[in-house]
Amino acid sequence: IPFNVIDTALSSLKSSQSFINSGMDIATKTALDLVESFNDEEDVNSMEKVMLEFAAMDRDLNNCIRAFEETVNQVKREKPEIIPDLEKLMQEKLTAIESKNSDSDLKSNEKYMYFMDQLKEMKKQFRHVSDDDNETIEQIDEDIAVTRSQMNFICPITQMEMKRPVRNKVCGHTYEEEAIVEIIQSRKQKKKKVRCPKMGCSHDDVKRSDLVPDEALKRVIDSQNK
Questions:
Q1: CA–CA dist 135, 188 (Å, integer)
Q2: What whole-number distance in Å separates Cα of residue 21 and Cα of residue 114?
Q3: In a domain, 158, yes or no
Q4: Which of 123, 186, 189, 194 has CB atoms 3.0–4.6 Å from 206's, for a disulfide?
Q5: Are 28 and 88 part of one and the same domain?
Q6: Which of 170, 181, 166 is nearest to 205 (CA)?
Q7: Average model confidence (pLDDT) for the chain?
Q8: 82: pLDDT confidence band, cut at 50, 70 and 90?
Q9: For residue 161, what are the β-bridge partners?
Q10: Are residues 193 and 111 part of one domain?
Q11: Which pTM was predicted?
């Protein structure tokens, strides 16, 4: 069996994930645009459906890749004279993997979770909620809702207004991207951990992989400056 051909096919399959990721990024930005321009809630909700469809595609692709890899690994372990039915073997493994699928898989997709988090932040800042809009009120955690004027736009590192804010997925604090990355790189060279620069935060191991762009906060800052 020409395994180099199989490896090439697997690599091509994995590259398809980049298209799904790009689609999810575009859907997220579109949803934030809709909230910022005060479009109907129905339009915004339609983007959540799009994200779930992308999440399903991502799960299906990952399942296929996993079944593919398991099939190849099993064949490599077999004796050379034993040539199994690859298509049948692949289908058996894929069916076994898919049997464990659940709807919760889609909502635990990292990009979907990021989408929902950013959407909630945007709604807190850009939605004018009426007394009758109970559904929207329920979606917003009132105990942490803040007005634009109360929002802290200042980076705890530079003490200046943030231009490219990133949020730490672990502790939830935000920093200017360039400032926190510089600290992480500097401490990494010294083989030391980075404590969250936000005063009072106990998180003592900030990693670059934990940082995600806070697009919602950036839009609020840009909107206020306009």
A1: 46
A2: 12
A3: no
A4: 194
A5: yes
A6: 170
A7: 84
A8: low
A9: 154
A10: no
A11: 0.72
